[in-house]
Amino acid sequence: MTKSSRRTLALASAASVALLALAACSSGGGGSSSAPITLTETDYYTGAPQTSQIAGVLNACGAQVGVKVVRQEVPRTQLVPKLLQDAAARSLPDLVLADNPDLQQLASTGGLVSLSASGLSTAGLYPSIVSAGSYQGQTYGIAPGVNDLALYYNTNLFAKAGLTPPKTWAQLTADAKALTSGSRKGIAFSAAATEEGSFQFEPFLWSAGANLNDLSSPQAVAALTLWKTLVSDGYASKSVVNWSQSDVEAQFQAGNAAMMVNGPWQLPLLNAAAGLHFGIVPIPVPAASDPAVSPLGGEVWSVGRSNPAREAKAVAVVKCLLSPAQAVQWSKDAGYIPSNEAAAAQLAKSDPQLAPFIAEVATAKARTAQLGTAYPKVSTALWNALQEALAGATSPQAALAQAQAGA
Amino acid sequence: MASVLSVKAPAAAAAGAAPGRRRRRTAWRAAGFVVPAWIYVLCFYVYPLVSNVKMGFQNYSISSFYTGSAPFVGFANYTALFRDPQFVSIVTNTVLFTLGSLAFQFALGLALALFFRRVFPLNGVLRSLLLVPWLLPLVVSGTVWRWMMDYDSGVINQTLLHLHLISQPIPWLVSTNTSLVAVILVNIWVGIPFNLVILYGGLQSLPEQVFEAAAIDGANAWQRFTRITLPMLRPVILVVLTLGLIYTIKAFDIIMLVTQGGPANSSQTLTTYAYNLSFNQLLFGQGAAVGNILILVAIVFAAIYLRAVRDSGGDRR
């Protein structure tokens, strides 16, 4: 290397270091009012149509507040680990769309901004979702829309077999048996080793009268026995232990299952499927007089700690995202129920498909209501029990007793 | 690292003959080459390793990430692990997975290597085709295997059913009895090319004359294999087996892709268990403890491997 070329190199590298430093200042600073602030956002909406809709809503609200929002989507199972890593590096995204049962755990890290202290109101929202977004008396997450579970059934298959949609567990088993033929199964649900498995089992668990504090109660055993019978008698595929809720939707849409347990967010996909006719009823209960209890699903917006200027902008974006107009439109497009009770009641009148979901959401239970930050651990024990009972030779009693010991 | 250090030695030796100023300059230059490598090793190997060992003795909770403080708890993470009723079955799974994969990978790899030693048309083409499992990204082959092993509509079950070899589909990935067998099968498929390539290379280096002399002396094929091929191939076999062992015991991606360790943890090994503890159950201390146990095991076998390499190098010289 010649002397002059070495000097050029040194100059070039010095210049690039200076440039990098400048770039770091401009992206990390945000205090200056002249440069537009860029906010980061993370969510787990990887599937259609939610993934494209959320991008549109973010752009709209970003423009309204006068910031640029850079979105990052990660798989559901990786969201919490990623946020924890970010928290360790003090670089939490400005906006986080987290699953409501994870919110309290995230808030317990101390990395989230209190939305109630920032002046955001939860008046008029379903009390269950408000409680799911609160931690130690402060609101850290607010949902624009919520969801729950119901039973979808294929009307063509039911009409052909001369059946009516089931209301009780006995009817559910009988219908599933009658509709199982060849490669088609009576029912599909998800017993995956993820939160989705617990979420799908909880309506059965709760409407049986069991609760998450006592996983080995006779009522819980009865609920798991129902699932085990459906699988071991062949009315549901053995693959349920590996199916996510979108796999369940695919099976139902392809006609491989006559019924499925699923949520309203599948409606946009199902309505777009040609030749598919389906109806929706509440999840069957043990006896006709028992109440149907669905777990409350849905994601909450929260704001990661950064500096006051950025936090203020992020709170403004969340305020826009939660504004009645945006929340209702977004819920409609994504197949969610507006978290605002009045708006939801309005929607129930105009949308008969959503009506059964909206009827159930009023009594839906937040998963963290009873257990708070301990919920994820109990949920893990619960989905392990589902897997033990459905994929192995373990009895529902033994599987749930083991889960209770480990929870 | 080893190569960087060995470069330094002759440079320093050459500098010994030169005048003082030049020697100092050469020493600086040599340091200039070594220091970046050391910084790299410190940042990306030593620091994470030390952190992991430390984390194994800490109660690293969720808020630890934000506050940065995690209390030391001694061996509590390890005792919690050993008391976990699942731990025994997970260690058993790891042993079965490692030994099962290793035995079949090696046997099939050696059989194929011997087969390809013969001269026949399309030998080269076939041999390159057998390398495909090795060249494919694991994400691709793992996902394809997952589809093929699907219970309801997977091609393996459909084929076996149509051939009337089975009357009921095999619950490859959906039963606690078969999931471990399924991941071992996939891992054997993945590992054959590695064994084939190394053993084939070893076979090529064996002198032809010895085999000819044995044939003239009346040794049959089996005798030539057990009395000549195997003993002469011993150093290569040792390297293949120890390397294979290290690769298999740390296998993570293939299990994660095919079964995620399920159903009901029936195909969970120590690596996937460590991931599961840290990133699903958020018990980072216990996850780190499992990682440390794995590191210990790997160090033991790495030492054996390094010895084997040294010995085989000595044999050749």
Gist of the model:
Chain A is an alpha/beta fold. In chain A, 49% of the residues lie in helices and 12% in strands. Chain A has 17 helices and twelve strands.
Features:
heterodimer; A: 407 residues; alpha/beta; D-Maltodextrin-Binding Protein, domain 2; 2 domains; four-stranded mixed sheet; 12 strands; 49% helix; globular; disordered N terminus; B: 317 residues; mainly alpha; MetI-like fold; 15 helices; 76% helix
In words, what does this structure look like?
- Chain A contains 17 helices and twelve strands.
- Chain A has 407 residues and is an alpha/beta fold.
- Chain A folds into two domains: 36-142 and 299-335, Periplasmic binding protein-like II (D-Maltodextrin-Binding Protein, domain 2, 3-Layer(aba) Sandwich), CATH 3.40.190; 150-296 and 369-406, D-Maltodextrin-Binding Protein, domain 2.
- In chain A, the strands form four sheets. Chain A has a four-stranded mixed sheet with strand order 2-1-3-11. Chain A has a four-stranded mixed sheet with strand order 8-9-7-10.
- In chain A, β4 (134-135) and β5 (138-139) form a beta hairpin.
- Chain A is globular.
- Chain B has 317 residues and is mainly α.
- Chain B has two domains: 2-55; 76-316, MetI-like (MetI-like fold), CATH 1.10.3720.10.
- Chain B contains 15 helices and no strands.
- In chain B, α4 (76-83) packs across α15, α12 runs antiparallel to α15 and α14 runs antiparallel to α15 (284-316).
- The relative contact order of chain B is 0.11.
- The model of chain B is unreliable at 1-17 (pLDDT under 50).
- Chain A binds chain B through residues 77-78, 80-81, 84-85, 87-88, 105-106, 108-111, 183, 193, 237-239, 241-242, 256, 376-377, 380, 384, 387-388, 390-394, 402, and chain B through 62-63, 65-68, 85, 150-153, 171, 173-177, 179, 260-266, 278-282.
